[in-house]
Prior knowledge:
Blueprint lengths: L2 H5 L3 H4 L10 H7 L10 E5 L2 E11 L4 H15 L14 E7 L6 E9 L11 E6 L2 E8 L7 H11 L9 E6 L10 E6 L2
InterPro entries: AraC_E-bd, Cass2, Reg_factor_effector_dom_sf, YobU-like_regulator
Organism: Paenibacillus xylanexedens
Protein name: Transcriptional regulator YdeE
Amino acid sequence: MTPAKLRKLEVDQLSLLKMQQSIDFNDYRTRLDGTFHMNTPRLVTREPNWIVGYEYKTNLNDNQHYAEIPGFYHDFGMEQKFMAIPERTRPDMAYGVACHFEEDGAFSFIVGEESSGASQVLEPGFTSIEIPGGLYAEFTVEGSGQDIRKMIYGSWLPQSNYERREGPDFEVTDVWKSTLEQLDMNIYIPLK
């Protein structure tokens, strides 16, 4: 449930809510056959940049997005959608940007690349988004594409001295150094 939806509930409805169980990361590590590893993030200040990419729709409900996002990258690459991006400045880096969240859990996931042509007319299905500059926690993904966002939001962020600020979180993958089995990816969470 999104925070906005929770705030709209009546007081007597709050007692009926089932709170999410806390995540047992030792259990999570065991289910991944002991291969789970998350590095301590680096704190980096990023300049704003424009991403142009293809916009896919998914949903947080029932963890639908975890199943669908790998397919978005596959579609983007196999259909060579990157070729429709004007003025590509870093064709070796693929971005995945989670944005446009709605109260029902729906959101957009944009797969694209950096571009200096954000204001140009784009082909149908494509969009541009500015990644705001500022402070970010940069997490490095090692090994396969296990989802570390559960650990970031469930463990690291609540225990850090930071809060998540407005803006999309995103991932950047070096497409030349990555394989399906071994990703070269960083995940960025905006902080204040």
